[in-house]
Amino acid sequence: MHYFQYKNDQLYAEDVSVALLVQEYGTPLYIYSASTLTRHYHAFESAFSDIKHLICYSVKANSNLSVLKILGQEGSGADIVSGGELFRALRAGIPAKKIVYSGVGKEVSEIQEALLADILLFNVESIQELERINTIAQDMDKVARVSLRINPDVDPKTHPYISTGLKENKFGLSRPEALKAYKLAQTLTHVDPIGMDCHIGSQLTSLEPFMEALGRLKEFYTELQGLGIPIQYLDLGGGLGITYNEEEPPHPKELGEAIGTSLQDLDVTLILEPGRVIAGNTGILVTEVQYLKENGEKNFVIVDAAMNDLVRPSLYGSYHRIAPVCQKNREEVVVDVVGPICESSDFLAKDRSLPRVAQGDLLAIFSAGAYGFTMSSQYNSRPRAAEVIVQGAHHILARKREVYNDLTVLEESGLTLVTEMSKD
Ligand code: LLP
Known about the structure:
Radius of gyration: 23 Å
Structural class: alpha/beta
Bound molecules: ligand LLP
Number of helices: 13
Helix content: 25-40%
Strand content: 15-25%
């Protein structure tokens, strides 16, 4: 459920007309609905109310400061994967005690920063990382709380690029390696192994893979108990899918009930790291039609948003619903919606049946709130889009549209240096 609806054939973000927002902020434009965001957060959070739990929103899905601030105010923690995400989460006011840090390649400075902030847990992905964290914590006279990320070898049945819990993936530790790591952690003085973690993939549309992974974690939990390693936190990661097209993912409630039943006999705090299910349908990307072109074979609708703004269709062949901002009764035509970037992979939709559009029309690309702006780039020297948040009849600019100067500002010093270099 989201708050992007048509009223008198005009698309609205909550109580604000999308066309009006475009007049004020231009295109391409990311628009997020704050009420949808908080609604999704609470739908997810309340699904786990029967068990001790902490929701750590996965910052990578949408890391806009205002989005993080809204979620933080609602009580969310954060799942981070870099020093940059730690910086953002803290800047947005998310308490360090609700932050967990995942990722296979944590650098020394990033570990130091997280220890300094005193985050809740590091989700450790290798034995070398465990050793590194221990050494750094020792140097800083701290004890790092850690979970070990288990790779349960479960098929999440999603796109291979976003599957993370299979043996062939780089993530986590196999059970035998994890056992070694827990035993090692017991002997290390500056890490405290109090958690177990896994994240098997993203855009999961059935419960089975979650439950299979949880089953494997529970077996391992029992084994660790026998070894005198008491696990207090069990982190099942994120991954619950959303409806882009015709997918019918389980409702968070169903996931909550299934996990709740399975965890009844365990005295642990459940951690979840949802990203897409919170932010995905919270946002749309609005773009303006620039040109129409036919070549006998194909009809192209050339718009001013491109793969640098929303890379998911190009990268994963993902489907995003597209619809005109102003609905007029027009015949349907099969088109490719493409951007101005010089690559054939620069498309937002292929062979899509859309009402016939004209130059200057606005199109809304739905379900763009997660992994939309965060994966955007300046490829082809295109300044990044603006981000706006709407709540009821109010709207705020949550990120300014980049300008040409933003493309070159970090390179200016090179101009002088090149001149000097060529003098030598
Ligand atoms: N926790 C960890 C450790 C993760 O790696 C991820 C996502 C999440 C949580 C959140 O997963 P979610 O609930 O959003 O599925 N760019 C891709 C998705 C990559 C997901 C990476 N990890 C896309 O656009 O589909």
